[in-house]
Prior knowledge:
The protein is an alpha/beta fold. It has one domain: Beta-carbonic Anhydrase, Chain A (3-Layer(aba) Sandwich). Helix content is 51%, strand content 14%. The chain contains ten helices and five strands; from the N terminus they run ααββαβααααααββα. Strands 2-1-3-4-5 form a five-stranded mixed sheet. The longest helix has 22 residues, at 141-162. It is globular and about 55 Å long. The termini are far apart.
Amino acid sequence: xxxxxxxxxxxxxxxxxxxxxxxxxxxxxxxxxxxxxxxxxxxxxxxxxxxxxxxxxxxxxxxxxxxxxxxxxxxxxxxxxxxxxxxxxxxxxxxxxxxxxxxxxxxxxxxxxxxxxxxxxxxxxxxxxxxxxxxxxxxxxxxxxxxxxxxxxxxxxxxxxxxxxxxxxxxxxxxxxxxxxxxxxxxxxxxxxxxxxxxxxxxxxxxx
Length: 208
């Protein structure tokens, strides 16, 4: 059995499990989508929105290499437009992650075999130059890459906040910058750490 064939088999099992647990689930799912959050994440296969335990219909999603926000990216801008104008999401999460291949590539010389990737991550190369002094203090390459991934998230948050599409939204939109750690599976809020700390404590108390 090939991996795609296995995916189809697993889908049948998942669908049956959902139907057994909640027979009306797919009827509700087909009727409409009302996500509260737009997730702008990296294409990396190791960081699905499932790390938040979100169910289908709860998160509107756009992914690309290194979770970049580019105003001239028609795909991203159309997603933003639909999310803010039609779906009227209240939150946008820019989620980067440690061990990001796109970010790591920006710290190395351009790879001749990857011209499209090189062009895509050029903004991260510029960000690297902007924060060269801070990054030089970290002797380990992986530490530099992980810190650059965090700086990249913050840069994308700033870009989003300055976009006319966001500023002219009918409803106020909160933009959050998060980083996912491969090392412990935790999400860390980079833009609102006090909120994250308070809610994490509440969650621990609720769990027991």
